[in-house]
Amino acid sequence: MKNAIKYLSVLAFFIFATSYALGDEATDYMSRGIEQGQKHNLNQAIADFTKVIELDPNNFAAYTERGLAKMALVKDSKDKNAMIASALADYSKAIELNPGIPQAYYNRGVLETGTGDFDSAIFDFSQTIALKPEPVYLSQAYMFRGSLRGGKNEYAEAMADLNEAIRLNPRLAKAFQWRGDLKQRKADKSGAAADHCEAYLLGGIEEGEHRQFSASIIDLTKAIELNPKRALAYYYRAIANREQGNLDAAMDDFAKTIELVPDASEAYNALGDLKKVKGDLDGAIADFNKAIQIKPDFANAYYNRGNAEYAKHELDGALADYSKAIELKPKFGKAYYNRGLVEKDKGDLVGAKSDFSLASESLDLIKVDRPPSDGLDMFKTKPRF
Q1: Cα–Cα–Cα angle for 154, 158, 162, nearest 5°?
Q2: Looking at the domain assignment, is residue 257 inside a domain?
Q3: Phi and psi at residue 187, in whole multiples of 5°?
Q4: Would you place residue 16 in the very low, low, confident or very high pLDDT band (cuts 50, 70, 90)?
Q5: Do residues 248 and 112 both lie within one domain?
Q6: pTM of the predicted model, to two decimals?
Q7: Mean pLDDT of 268-273
Q8: Is the same domain home to 129 and 233?
Q9: What is the CATH number of the domain that holds 99?
């Protein structure tokens, strides 16, 4: 199975609750190992967990954490097979010491999947599921087991597992892809196309969240080819196109989103923002009006309309819209700042000074509640449609 290890959150180092108290020295090494792992200092983390094991040979948590650090090193290891074998040994020892660790079974199953030991992997994913771990492990355990069962032509069992994985986490792109592959093998063309469309959509969204906009556009285009009426694919492709500077393509995609979902307030707001960038202030205001009509509590739409009005020197309208945006989102620092600009232009220096002060105190002026022109925010915020 291609690159199975990437589905493990290798930096999610866990502090295990143990039934015994570690000595102070072992506790210090354990804490430092977890901290070093979280900082990507994986060799130092391994050294610290090894020290814990020397001090407390029955510490299952240290074996599990050391195995996790070794998994994270596999990709860059000169001898990948040796690193995988060493990580497998750590997980097996952890399970020997404490058979109730779902993470150890899950991680061992991921490694076994990558090495082609599918029967052992199925056993470990089944053990993971039986131990009812946290949802991220549970959903992926079902997903992996479903894929492996599909490879063994256990169609009904594979479908049941993939269905459960998707129920637990509807954003698992690979679960949709593998379920689509199964349907394709059973000549369910429409079902396969729907699942593959969702897989490309989810993959495109994830790539956008990581600012991989070119890859995102490719995957979202594939989703659209499979289902030309999938509005979300147009919406997210528009965001990716905008971040790439393809403004006309982005406008076309936002317009297509609106055609498919007439009450897509987020698309109206984003389209208006682009029209403003291109100098079509009246067109932008019309789109912001529509967004507000659909969603009267849409703070960013009021803010954007205020910006367009300010660009047209319509100070009263801009002042009213910035005030409404602040009413709806009291820590909207950029709205305070822009309202201060309007007040300054209108000669209200006292009001302007107050708003500039409030803007500087608002956390969102630095990093929180950025306006919707930030593509990363839009990828991470699911629209209402």
Answers
A1: 175
A2: yes
A3: 65, 25
A4: very low
A5: no
A6: 0.86
A7: 98
A8: no
A9: 1.25.40.10
125 with 255, same domain: the answer is no
7 Cβ partners below 8 Å, 6+ apart? 110, 140, 143, 144, 174
- Beta-carbon count within 10 A of 127 CB: 20
Domain that residue 44 falls in: 4-133
Residue 11 CB partners (closer than 8 Å, separation 6+): 37, 38, 40, 72
33-to-6, 13, 38, 39, 305 alpha-carbon distances in Å: 22, 9, 9, 10, 51
Give a yes or no: residue 283 inside a domain: yes
Tokens 């990716």 found at: 240
Tens digit of each residue's pLDDT (9 = 90 or more) over 157-192 = 999 999 999 999 999 999 999 999 999 999 999 999
Query: 164 lies in a domain?
Result: no
| pLDDT of 109 above 70 | yes
Encoding tokens for residue 219? 């995957």
**What is the per-residue pLDDT for 362?**
79
- 244 and 121 part of one domain: no
Nearest to 116 by CA among 9, 204, 221, 2: 2
Residues 6+ apart with CB under 8 A from 260: 229, 231, 234
Over residues 69-78, mean pLDDT: 93
Three-state secondary structure call for residue 346? coil
Read off the pLDDT of residues 311-370 as tens digits, 9 standing for 90 and up.
999 999 999 999 999 999 999 999 999 999 999 999 999 999 999 999 988 755 444 444
Assess if residue 160 is contained within a domain: no
Burial class from Cβ neighbours inside 10 Å (0-12, 13-18, 19+) for residue 109 reads buried
Cβ atoms of residues 34 and 65 within 8 Å: yes
